[in-house]
Write a structure and sequence with these properties.
Strand content: under 5%
Distance between the termini: 23 Å
Mean pLDDT: 93
Radius of gyration: 15 Å
Strand order of the largest sheet: 1-2
Low-confidence stretches: none
Shape: globular
Number of strands: 2
Length: 152
Amino acid sequence: MDLPNIFTKTVAEGVIERINQLTPNSQPLWGTMNAAQMLAHCCVTYEMVYTDKHPKPGLMMRLILKWFVKQQVVTDKPFPKSSKTAPAFLITEQKEFEAEKIRLIDYIKQTQVLGASAFDGKASHSFGMLDDNEWNNMFYKHLDHHLKQFGV
């Protein structure tokens, strides 16, 4: 694994501890989302795995995502601050902090319990088949990026 392994209980619990340090009044060090919007934003990755809430991109968009975006998302290279985000990840409406926090923590726990083997060779919503390391990097890097955005 390139990054800490989100599929292990220790790492998942560490991320959850960081989430639990957030409050509804936590302020970002960069960007425009408030804490509740950031939590909802982080849930989108998991919604794409566990729900049908987001339509899959069409063939051309999937090819563009696979060729031009995938390597920015599934490697260990950190995201730049205030980087562009896909439309499905834009959260502009107000969200309820506690509800979004519980939802994100539940998704992290569910993913950890399923484990790396459940994701090895699983197709992602946008990037096609990913191995467990790529899934780990995508999950962990995104969470870590936004938790650092809020100073935790």
